[in-house]
């Protein structure tokens, strides 16, 4: 089927049906009900909330239940055309068209909401095909299938996603081993003392930690996965989940000659280096920042929608703390900006910890709140400088 000429030259085409793609569409529809919007996505086009993937066991949700609205429902609700299960293979910025597995589509404005890939570390052994990642609903459905009738899960990576899955899995009575090259959990987000508190709570819930090492090889012995660590120990497990970080999807942009850095480079109007092409979400780098979280997407979508409709609007980022969904010890973090100069100051309170990252003149530049201290989230957030201000 050839979709050329089906979407008008002046229409908006969005690639990607993740939170970025759908949030932009919602914001456009708040401002404008008539502009033609076409959503092209590899996924079926359903809407789901990705953060719920790492809490679905505890909240007793099946993968099917996580897709809150199907493609038809989204198309009707937001008055748009959805091309689901459609792969985009090229962007031609001169003719303003994209090549898809269902034909060529013309765009007036193009939004790249392509997301990011889970990084896969090169591992040795005869069972590397058993390495699982969870970065979308389909992968999560495979993961849940793999868990059926199984007991032991090994997770490579003690970052936000690794820790959240570890907590969710122990709450579902699985045995969980977590391996990380860093000497602590959430190495990019938490100071050591805070990480230790979280580790203790998760240990009490049943998580076994293997820090300062990594996985060397993964081999199959009958039904069992035998995971050899760089420090020589061997973990026997049934399922292996890799959660070692994300890499923005850049290939489409690069092949089209669109500027990229760590992400697809955009300015404060979310414009890429190509005319009429914009980027948002996990694939985008705004003013040097790649922030793969929900709050930045919400902010960016509110700025992008008016820009797409011709109302020049500049993106600002307030302080945007991230909640780590570890019910064993609820945690909220707002890490200091890269290169920020200051020191962590700890204040242990009953059932919690306040960690402040302060400059030498006492200005709050970042924080971590654990346990009962999470109640202070509002006042700490107010005290922080914005990440991207309007000046
Ligand atoms: C388990 C988990 C828990 C999380 N929890 C939190 C949390 O608690 N708080 C928080 O702030 N953040 C959290 N995050 C991060 C947050 O979910 C992401 O930042 C956000 O969902 C990214 O949305 P996105 O639309 O940019 O990318 P994605 O959701 O990855 O969407 C990308 C879309 O692009 C499509 N696509 C890509 N390439 C092509 C192509 N060539 N052709 C067609 N379609 C294409 C994909 O199919 C997909 O539809 C979590 C992430 C994970 C994995």
In the CATH hierarchy, the third-tier topology of the largest domain is known as: FAD/NAD(P)-binding domain
Shape: globular
Biggest β-sheet description: 5 strands, parallel
Helix count from the secondary structure assignment: 9
Quote the distance from N terminus to C terminus. 48 Å
Radius of gyration: 22 Å
Q: State the total count of DSSP E strands.
A: 27
What ligand species are in this complex? flavin-adenine dinucleotide
What spatial order of strands do you see in the largest sheet?
A: 5-2-1-9-21
CATH superfamily of the largest domain: FAD/NAD(P)-binding domain
CATH class descriptor name of the largest domain: Alpha Beta
Low-confidence stretches: 1-8
Oligomer: single chain
How much of the sequence is in beta strands?
25-35%
CATH architecture of the largest domain: 3-Layer(bba) Sandwich
User: Helicity range of the residues?
Assistant: 10-25%
Average pLDDT score:
96
| Secondary structure category | alpha/beta
SSE layout:
Elements: E1 12-15, H1 19-31, E2 37-40, E3 47-48, H2 63-66, E4 67-69, H3 71-78, E5 81-83, E6 88-92, E7 97-100, E8 103-106, E9 109-112, E10 116-118, E11 131-132, H4 137-147, E12 152-156, H5 160-171, E13 175-180, H6 192-204, E14 207-211, E15 215-221, E16 224-229, E17 234-237, E18 239-242, E19 246-248, H7 251-255, E20 264-266, E21 277-279, E22 284-286, H8 294-308, E23 322-324, E24 331-334, E25 343-349, E26 352-358, E27 364-371, H9 377-383
Parallel strand pairs: 1-2, 1-9, 2-5, 9-21, 11-18, 12-13, 12-18, 13-14, 20-22
Antiparallel strand pairs: 3-4, 6-7, 7-8, 10-19, 15-16, 16-17, 23-24, 24-27, 25-26, 26-27
Helix pairs in contact: 1-8
Residues 15-21, 40-43, 50-51, 53-54, 87-88, 113-115, 134-135, 161, 164, 249, 252, 281-282, 292-295, 322-323, 325 line the site of flavin-adenine dinucleotide (FAD).
């Amino acid at each position: 089927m050839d979709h050329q000429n089906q979407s008008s030259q002046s229409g908006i085409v969005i690639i990607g049906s993740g939170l970025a793609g759908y949030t932009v569409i919602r914001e456009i529809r708040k401002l404008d009900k008539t502009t033609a919007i076409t959503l092209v996505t590899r996924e079926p086009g359903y809407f789901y909330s990705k953060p719920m993937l790492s809490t679905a066991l505890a909240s007793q949700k099946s993968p099917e239940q996580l897709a809150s609205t199907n493609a038809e429902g989204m198309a009707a609700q937001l008055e748009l055309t959805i091309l689901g299960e459609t792969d985009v293979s090229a962007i031609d910025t001169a003719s303003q068209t994209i090549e898809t597995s269902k034909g060529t589509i013309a765009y007036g404005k193009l939004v790249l909401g392509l997301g990011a890939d889970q990084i896969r570390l090169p591992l040795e052994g005869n069972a590397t095909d058993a390495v699982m990642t969870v970065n979308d609903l389909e992968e999560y459905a495979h993961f849940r299938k793999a868990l059926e009738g199984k007991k032991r899960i090994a997770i490579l990576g003690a970052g936000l996603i690794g820790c959240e899955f570890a907590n969710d899995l122990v709450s579902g009575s699985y045995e969980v081993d977590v391996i990380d090259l860093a000497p602590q959990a959430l190495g990019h987000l938490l100071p050591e003392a805070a990480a230790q508190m979280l580790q203790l709570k998760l240990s009490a819930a049943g998580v076994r930690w293997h820090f300062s090492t990594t996985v060397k090889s993964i081999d199959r012995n009958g039904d069992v996965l035998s995971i050899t660590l760089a420090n020589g120990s061997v973990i026997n497990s049934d399922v292996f989940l890799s959660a070692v970080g994300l890499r923005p999807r850049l290939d489409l942009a690069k092949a089209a000659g669109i500027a990229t850095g760590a992400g697809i480079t955009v300015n404060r109007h979310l414009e890429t280096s190509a005319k009429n092409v914009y980027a948002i979400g996990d694939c985008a780098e705004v003013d040097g920042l790649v922030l793969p979280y929900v709050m930045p997407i919400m902010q960016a979508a509110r700025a992008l929608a008016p820009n797409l409709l011709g109302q020049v609007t500049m993106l600002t980022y307030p302080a945007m703390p991230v909640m780590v969904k570890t019910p064993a010890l609820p945690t909220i973090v707002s890490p200091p900006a890269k290169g920020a100069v200051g020191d962590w100051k700890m204040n242990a309170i009953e059932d919690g910890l306040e960690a402040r990252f302060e400059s030498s003149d006492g200005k709050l530049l970042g924080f971590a709140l654990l346990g009962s201290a999470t109640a202070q989230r509002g006042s700490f957030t107010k005290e922080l400088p914005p990440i991207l201000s309007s000046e």
